[in-house]
Amino acid sequence: MSTTDLAALAAELKAKGVRALTVAWPDANGIQRSRSAPIDKLASAVERGMGCSFLFAVFDSHDHIHWGVEGLQTATGDFRLKAVPERIVQLAGQPAFAWAPGQLWTQEGPRWEHCYRAALERTLEHAKGLGYEFKAGLELEWFIGQDSDVPVAAHHGPVYSPNAMLDVSEFLSELLGDLDANGLGIGQVHAEYGWSQLELSLDAKEPLEAADNQLLARETLRTAARANDLRASFAPLITPEGVGNGWHFHLSLLKDGRNLLSGGDGPEGMTAEGEAFVAGILRDLPGVVAVTAPSVPSLIRLRPGYFASAYAFWGTDNREASLRFVPGVEAIGAQNANIELKAADASCNPYLGLTAMIASGLGGIEDGLELPEQIVEDPGGWTPEQRDAKGVRRLGQTTDEQILNFEAAPRIREAFGDPLANAFVGVRRSDAEWAEGKSAEEIIAAHLWRY
Question: What local confidence, expressed as pLDDT, does residue 331 receive?
Answer without folding.
Answer: 87
